[in-house]
Amino acid sequence: MRILVVDDNNTNLKLLVRLVKKVENCEAVAFSTPDEVLSALPDLDFDVAIIDYQMPVYNGVELFTEIVRFEKYANVPVVFITADKDMTTRMAALNAGAIDFLTKPVNPVEFQVRIHNIVNLTIARRQLADQAEWLRNEVEKAVQELRLREQEIIERLTLAAGYKDPETARHTLRVAAYSETIAREMGLSEQFCTDLRLAAPMHDIGKVAMPDTMMLKQGKLTESEFRQMQSHTEVGANILARSHSSLLQLASEIAISHHERWDGQGYPNRLAGEAIPLAGRIVCIADNFDALTTERPYKPAWSYERTVEHILGRAGSQFDPACVAAFEKSLPKIRTIMENDRREQAEEAALSAGSQPLGKIA
């Protein structure tokens, strides 16, 4: 245990150093002037400070006030030594952070008892701080493990949703990437952007309840089929609802709201404006962009330019204007995501074709 000792009187300083050495497991770090102490900061290491109150240039309180400007010394216990019994002096020391006083002339027995107690208190504080840090680390580890489990659940649900149609799985991942890009352009928090990327793939999970004949139908849905298709938002929300997982709660929110419209003409609840959850407003744009730029059983793919023009033209009616503005600013990144995905699909198709067995030679 290193104990800082500061006293401008050389005789007193030697006495204090000698008394410190008699306290078990303690060593003195001695200075005869405040200037020397300040020159050694912040590289000086000590666990307890014993400071004479009356010194030239800086008194003890002024010196300690300068010392604790450095964060590393903020919790160091300080004992002031003073011959002054005036209450004003003692109050100034207490206000500076003193935990004890020693009166000159210093009684060696009293000194050792008090310093011994302060050393034990310092050790106990350190142990408590170590335990708190250990507990904090354990909590962070547990939260991280829980987070990883939540991510795994979402990934497996996404896999299940796209099991019958690989393109559906790719669609959900592209929508997640587009959504995260838009959210970052809006300046939203790192936590929100990450959560959005993880939860967005669940936006169409309710389609697992839709008949294959309807999902893969060539051509326009009938009015009855379209109403049934609209129910995928509520089905998805119900699948994900009432979870204790914050990610699944966000996914449920997205599932129920990503087909709402800014003007209130969407479904299933005809929400309007900011009544629509922000995550739903963002995913709505990402989902529309991907749906329009990819081929579906009922339509050919639109061009990138036509799709962008369509979305920009519907700001304030179908889409949140602020989200559309962020979408427009992030178009270079969005186009890169789209093109990289198309390149990956082409490479996978080429590999798949190359691995097909050759026909028999006649």
Automatic annotation (TrEMBL):
GO molecular function term, any single one:
kinase activity
**Organism domain of life:** Bacteria
Query: Residue limits of the HD domain?
Result: 168-292
Residue ranges annotated for the HD-GYP domain, each copy included: 146-343
Q: Which Gene3D superfamilies match?
A: 3.40.50.2300, Hypothetical protein af1432 (1.10.3210.10)
Residue ranges crossing the lipid bilayer per the database entry: none
Q: Which GO terms describe its biological process?
A: phosphorelay signal transduction system
**Statement: the UniProt record of this protein carries the keyword Transmembrane:** no
Annotated Response regulatory domain ranges read: 2-119
**What keywords were assigned to this record?**
Coiled coil, Kinase, Phosphoprotein, Transferase
Query: Where, if anywhere, are coiled coils annotated?
Result: 125-156
- As stated in the Swiss-Prot or TrEMBL entry, residues carrying the post-translational modification 4-aspartylphosphate are D52
The protein's name is Histidine kinase
In the record, what lineage is assigned to the organism producing the protein? Bacteria, Pseudomonadati, Pseudomonadota, Alphaproteobacteria, Hyphomicrobiales
